[in-house]
Design brief:
Chain C: It holds the Pfam family GerA. Chain C: It is found in: Cell membrane; Membrane. The complex is a heterotrimer of chains A (366), B (407) and C (549). With 366 residues, chain A is mostly helical. Chain A contains 13 helices and 2 strands; from the N terminus they run ααααααααααββααα. In chain A, β1 and β2 form a beta hairpin. In chain B, the strands form 2 sheets. In chain B, strands 1, 2, 3, 4, 5, 6, 7, 8, 9 and 10 form a 10-stranded mixed sheet that branches. Chain B is of the alpha/beta class and 407 residues long. Chain B is globular. Chain B has 2 domains: 215 residues, no CATH class; 165 residues, Nutrient germinant receptor protein C, domain 3 (GMP Synthetase, Chain A, domain 3, 2-Layer Sandwich). In chain B, α12 crosses α13. Chain B is built from 15 helices and 14 strands. Chain C has 17 helices and 12 strands. The chains are: A mainly alpha (366), B alpha/beta (407), C alpha+beta (549). Chains in contact: A-B, A-C, B-C. At the B-C interface, α1, β1 and α2 of B face α12 and α16 of C.
Chain lengths: 366, 407, 549
């Protein structure tokens, strides 16, 4: 573990940017049609619950990251195996986010540029950042958070002033009952983006005042849920359900629709800026966590040495993960959400928590 | 060790930067398209007409004043089995990269719209990231789309700009036409409870003369472009044109009217009082009783008296109230006429179906399939209009009243 | 891979060390360690040591009766205040009755010190090193034959630039005086502002050859002890032959050298130094330069000028926002133009796109090359303008304006839009209050232009984030460079982009001052008097005055 400390505000900022990351760009929970915003709010509830689980684990082991306490809870051998899979999981997720982001840029702004180059550029930046450590990342995050807020606030002002919101598109609410909503929550939305806070089990030990971890995390997730829900609602009300569900990047389409005062139009750069900021932080966090986890597992003293190898792995994996965008997208929805996210985000942590609970009870009694 | 990584890192960066510039496109390498027209030729192939901007002739007055020496736009046509092929074939004629991002007008000929429908055309426009889906669509009424595209215009040098601005202005000031974008058209096409309405544009005069530069050197143009009527669609195909008050009725129900003028008869004199609507709000709501839907339209209009050609005492609140009542009736009649016409065409251009769907999703599911053909033509529509006169301009009574008294 | 390089470097270092160690004893063998008791030997030693330099003056005097004692006064011409040497040293030594009697050489020193010399500092010395040190810094040495000690009389003076108005940090309101090249004057100027015994000064001589006076100044009660210690540690390890300007020291003690951004603040205004000392910073004075270093520095400091604190806070805030905006323009102005015109033409409104396209039709270069030509032309002009004698400077600007503004456009080499962009960028880079930050922006601007030319906005955004990461990773004496914005410190954000009213500055920056944070008393916000009597009275008088007579 690096000798570094971050404060509660920095943790808050990191969680917010991390959660917004790629969730800003893709259509979220659109399986539930015009109730997507509701799905996100409920998913946020689930996310809060998951965070409490992670927090409880942190509460038992406030000084060590999850890859280490897994070994304490499950025993060294089994713990190491699980920890290793977590590291792989983080690398894999980083690669997926990178791929998704690269696809977005190639599709909409740089059609002639190879995907590899787009991805490589971002990974170079992330390598540079991660080398500098978590403190620099979180300080940068503070700045980016200000930019992001500025972007979101001014964009929402523009959307409102532009008069393109047609709230009729959000009606009827719950036309098919609550069932499809809950189904979407459980199948998709709980895991992406909310369940992904599981990476912060690796970052929480850096917090300088551990008593603030709970409140900060819950507030950050709550804020993200609200923002994402609002953005989805705006997307649907501007574009209509069917267009959102057919769009690869609905927020982009919404922003492109904005026309204010005859010259504030074609604000695509807003979208690009927001997404680059979010995705940068998201990949950097995944990357950092994977690096620290790997360093911890393989007893590498200077974790910065792993930066370039892991960066290259993420880059190659991001290209190799799917051969085209449809495959990538279907994989995400059919496979990753249920078979990858569910065990890593929900099942294993709950399991760990139960064992940790009994172990620590014994200890305190003894 | 550290040095070596740094070295690799720098190599990687320089490699990336040196080999860059994939998506680079310099402005002078671009042929900026301002408008696109879609026709069909005898062989059934798409004919795509591109209107390119000649920046030097538009920007004008710069660098020794090259402006105005040539036409502000150049037009190239190309054919293909689908839109994309026609698009690429254009590159055999144009020396530069076709650049769509500034195109803001899509003209579709009436013929194509009637026979083929517009749904086959729009996908290419929606999918391409370079094309803006906020681009306006108009139907070339009675002519080929190419004629609209080639016609030169005065005041606004770029014809596409002229069409767009005309639409914006007339939608705002007169309310018989509406500006519809590709994105809106697609979402209407997708919807089961609404049909499409697109404004028609007509070229008046000789289309050959319209192409020439002399055309815009006259004070009255030989060939002009003007908005004319609303094209009514059913399942993506053009079926009818609405004109004048009928067209305005449609726009009114869609709540797109901002300002317009309404004339009413007074004391047997036809169209004696002209009333200008300054602002209005139209609300459409639906009711379903015993499985039968009913629509209520509520219009609330506010405005001024702008012209009076009969002696009438405008200082009397009672008279004003009477005029208001008359105005209400007049507007109501206009709206009902439009609705009847649409019902005859069996095309729910007002989106009443969507209104029902929003309020009664369950009932809608049952009537969805035969809405346009069975339910809509017999739909009961209540129209309630409240018109308010707020002011009467700079004068109270007309000089006509004084003349009557004096003589 | 690099092993043989390393080996080479190693040997070089070793050689240097050997040289160094062989230097040291050599210089000591030239003269004995202590002063001899014969006058002529001493004078010979000085002559030899200084290579008979013509600016060293030896004035022989004879004092006492039976026997007369030979004495000599030695000083460096131009370094001493010759008036005080004549009036208060030589003249009394010749005429003072105390020296006209019979005296023994051993007593002379005390007599001269206590009765004759009318100067502030007189002290005996017997060590050659110290003697040469003070002789070279402008003191006068008195030798007495038969005494193995000499007297040092402080007569430092000579021609120096007088205190003038600052030319680098100009302000409309506020004190006009600026530091000079003399360290004593400079320190005194700060003392004059902070009249407090807690203002501590520690001096040392740095530079093997130049023996430059360097002083560290801080306020004992406020400055962080750890940082003071760190400053000392870093200064102590400086081993250089010469220090000609504070820039030498800056480069030797900064936290990170691989950056274009200054991590130490420098100024030539005493009020700026005083203000920073009060915030807990540490000032480093170097003799021979008007520029004083201040640390730890934070990034936002370079966008603040002392005048901000003298102006009204609302105006100062607006100006600060403007400066940040200006900085951004000077950083990314041309890059944004390149990105838009070569990658994202859809972002320009159609009319503007047509105008720019029309201008660029005849330009034979890609936008990037065009921008590069203009930027480089501008840099040439600027460099020429700075180095030129003032009389020629105006010619340069006229020629430059013609070249950039007129001819280049008419020749069709650049487009007018590009000229606008480059000129705005140029003006913006002059408007940044700190020259140190402005020149770093000037350099980074080219990097941004390259990244924008290869990957458009994407490249530009990545480059910006990279810059941000870099800035966030910097530290100045351990204080994060971007504080108090990142890490965000709520209480201090009031002195960053915004400038709080003076009554709201309750605390000092806590990363810099660490202890003794309370800056001002409670209830500093001015309250209008509850009793309006005085106002009314005044009004009455005025009313009476204004009545027609």
């Amino acid at each position: 573990m690096e000798k570094a400390k971050i404060n509660a505000y920095q943790l808050f900022v990191l969680i917010v940017l991390f959660e917004l990351g790629s969730a800003l760009m893709v259509p979220l929970a659109i399986e539930a049609k015009q109730d997507a915003w509701l799905v996100i709010l409920i998913g946020m509830g689930g996310g809060l619950f998951l965070y409490l689980i992670y927090y409880s684990l942190y509460y038992y082991y406030p000084d060590i990251p999850s890859t280490e306490y897994v070994q304490k809870i499950m025993g060294t051998t089994l713990g190491r195996i699980i920890a290793f899979f977590y590291v792989v999981y983080f690398v894999y997720l980083a690669a997926r986010v990178l791929r998704n982001f690269g696809e977005m840029l190639v599709t909409f702004a740089y059609p002639e540029t190879p995907l590899f180059v787009i991805n490589a550029l971002l990974i170079v930046l992330v390598i540079y950042t991660v080398r500098k450590g978590i403190e620099v990342l979180s300080r940068t995050g503070e700045f980016l958070f200000v930019f992001m807020s500025f972007l979101l606030i001014s964009a929402s002002i523009l959307v409102v002033v532009g008069g393109i919101i047609d709230s009729n598109n959000l009606r009827p609410i719950l036309a098919d009952g609550i069932q499809p909503v809950m189904k979407t929550v459980l199948m998709h939305n709980l895991y992406f983006p909310f369940g992904e806070v599981v990476v912060f089990t690796m970052i929480l030990p850096y917090l300088n005042r551990s008593e603030k971890a709970k409140r900060t995390g819950l507030m950050a997730i709550g804020l993200c849920g609200l923002i994402l829900s609002l953005i989805t609602a705006v997307n649907i009300s501007v574009l209509g359900v069917s267009l959102v569900s057919r769009s690869q990047y609905p927020l982009l389409s919404t922003i492109q629709t904005v026309e204010v005062a005859g010259f504030l139009e074609r604000l695509d750069v807003y979208f690009v800026l927001a997404v680059v900021i979010g995705v940068f932080v998201k990949i950097a966090v995944f990357f950092y966590v994977a690096m620290e986890g790997a360093a911890n597992l393989f007893a590498v003293k200077e974790s910065a040495r792993l930066v370039v190898p892991i960066g290259v792995v993420i880059l190659i994996l991001s290209i190799a993960v799917a051969s085209n965008f449809s495959e990538f997208f279907q994989e995400e929805h059919r496979f990753v959400h249920f078979y990858v996210h569910l065990p890593f985000q929900v099942i294993i942590p709950i399991f760990l928590l139960i064992i940790a609970f009994f172990k620590n009870r014994k200890k305190s009694k003894g | 060790m550290k040095r070596r990584w740094m070295f690799l890192f720098l190599m990687l960066i320089s490699l990336l930067f040196l080999s860059g510039c994939w998506s680079k496109k310099e402005l002078p390498e671009l042929a900026i398209i301002s408008a696109v027209g879609i026709d069909k030729n005898e062989e059934g192939k798409f004919v795509k007409t591109h209107q390119f901007i000649n920046p030097n002739n538009v920007a004008g007055g710069l660098q020794g004043g090259g402006g105005g020496q040539g036409p502000s736009v150049s037009v190239y046509t190309s054919t293909g089995d689908n839109i994309l092929e026609a698009h690429f074939r254009a590159s055999t004629k144009v020396s530069r990269r076709l650049y769509h991002s500034h195109a803001n007008l899509l003209v579709i000929s009436e013929e194509v719209a009637r026979e083929e429908g517009i749904q086959d055309i729009l996908d290419a426009f929606e999918r391409d990231p370079e094309i803006r889906t906020t681009m306006t669509i108009v139907i070339a009424k009675g002519r080929k789309a190419g004629d609209i595209i080639t016609s030169l215009t005065s005041i606004d040098r770029i014809p596409a700009e002229k069409v767009n601005k005309t639409l914006e202005t007339t939608e705002k000031m007169f309310g018989e036409h509406i500006k519809v974008s590709i994105q809106e058209s697609i979402s209407i096409l997708e919807s089961s409870g609404r049909e499409l309405v697109i404004t028609g544009f007509r070229q008046k005069g000789d289309s050959e003369k319209g192409k020439k530069l002399e055309n815009i050197q006259n004070s009255e143009l030989d060939a002009t472009l003007e908005a004319d009527g609303l094209a009514i669609f059913k399942e993506g195909k053009l079926i009818d044109w609405f004109h004048d008050e009928d067209a305005r009725g449609v726009v009114w129900i869609l709540d797109k009217v901002k300002e317009t003028n309404v004339n009413i008869d007074w004391e047997k004199k036809k169209d004696a009082i002209a009333y200008q609507v300054i602002r209005q709000k139209t609300k459409v709501s639906a009711d379903v009783k015993n499985g039968k839907p009913a629509i209520t339209i509520h219009v609330r209009a506010e405005g001024d008296i702008r012209e009076v050609v009969v002696p009438v005492d405008l200082t009397d609140p009672k008279v004003i109230a009477n005029i208001e009542k008359g105005l209400g009736k007049e507007i109501e009649k206009e709206l009902k006429d439009s609705i009847n016409l649409a019902q005859k065409n069996k095309s729910d251009i007002f989106g009443f179906g969507e209104t029902v769907q929003r309020s009664y999703p369950d009932a809608w599911r049952k009537m969805k399939n035969n809405w346009h053909d069975v339910t809509f033509p017999d739909l009961k529509v209540n129209v309630k209009v409240e018109a308010f006169i707020r002011r009467t301009g700079l004068r109270t009574n007309s000089y006509l009243s004084q003349m009557e008294i004096n003589r | 891979m690099f092993s043989f390089f390393n080996g080479k470097r190693q040997t070089k270092k070793n050689m240097k060390k050997e040289q160094n160690s062989s230097d040291q004893p050599n210089s000591n063998t030239k003269y004995p360690g202590y002063i001899d008791n014969t006058l002529s030997t001493n004078i010979d030693i000085i002559r030899k040591r200084t290579g008979n330099s013509s600016d060293i003056v030896f004035r022989s005097l004879k004092i006492g009766r039976n026997p007369e004692i030979k004495t000599a006064v030695v000083y460096v011409k131009g370094m001493v205040d010759s008036q005080s040497v004549n009036d208060f040293l030589i003249e009394p030594m010749m005429n003072n009755p105390a020296l006209q009697e019979k005296i023994i050489p051993q007593e002379v020193l005390t007599i001269i010190t206590e009765e004759v010399v009318a100067l502030g500092g007189v002290k005996p010395v017997n060590d050659w090193d110290e003697l040469f040190g003070s002789l070279m810094s402008g003191n006068t040495i008195i030798f007495i034959d038969g005494v193995s000690e000499a007297l040092i009389a402080s007569t430092q003076g000579g021609e120096r630039r007088s205190i003038q108005e600052s030319t680098t940090y100009v302000s409309v309101r506020g004190p006009k005086e600026a530091f000079t090249e003399s360290i004593e004057t400079n320190i005194a100027m700060v003392r004059r502002i902070i009249n407090n015994p807690d203002l501590w000064i520690e001096s040392m001589k740095l530079g093997k050859m130049t023996k430059t006076d360097v002083s560290v100044m801080y306020i004992n009660e406020i400055a962080d002890k750890e940082i003071v210690k760190e400053v000392h540690k870093r200064l102590k390890r400086i081993d250089l032959d010469g220090i000609l300007e504070s820039g030498y020291i800056e480069q030797l003690i900064e936290d990170q050298t691989l950056t274009t951004f200054p991590t130490l603040y420098h100024t030539d205004r005493p009020d700026a130094v005083a203000g920073n000392l009060l915030e807990g910073r540490i000032a480093i004075f170097v003799n021979g330069t008007p520029f004083v270093l201040l640390g730890p520095a934070v990034f936002i400091q370079f966008f603040q000028s002392v005048e901000d604190y003298y102006e009204r806070y609302d105006i100062a805030t607006a100006v600060r926002f403007l400066r940040i905006f200006i900085f951004f323009i000077s950083l990314i102005g041309p890059a944004v133009y390149i990105a838009i015109t070569t990658f994202h033409q859809e972002m320009i409104p159609t009319q503007l796109a047509i105008i720019i396209a029309a201008q660029r039709e005849s330009v034979p270069f890609p936008a990037f090359v065009e921008a590069l030509i203009m930027e480089i032309t501008f840099e040439i002009l600027r460099e020429a303008g700075v180095r030129m004698p003032k009389a020629v400077g105006s010619t340069i600007s006229i020629v430059g304006a013609l070249v950039i503004g007129q001819a280049a456009i008419q020749a069709g080499i650049v487009s007018p839009a590009m000229v606008i962009v480059v000129s705005i960028t140029a003006i913006a880079s002059f408007a940044t209050p700190s020259y140190a930050v402005a020149i770093s922006a000037r350099l980074i601007r080219f990097l941004f232009m390259i990244s924008a030319a290869t990957f458009g906005f994407y490249g530009l955004i990545l480059a910006l984030i990279m810059l941000l990461v870099h800035l966030c990773s910097l530290r100045s004496f351990g204080v994060p460079y971007m504080s108090p914005i990142a890490p965000f410190i709520p209480g201090e954000a009031g002195d960053t982009f915004v400038r709080k009213p003076v009554w709201a500055y309750k605390e000092r920056p806590r990363l810099i001052a660490t202890e003794n944070l309370i800056r001002e008393g409670k209830d500093q916000r001015p309250q209008p008097p509850a009793n309006r009597q005085i106002d009314n009275q005044n009004q009455n008088i005025k009313k009476g005055d204004q009545n027609e007579t």
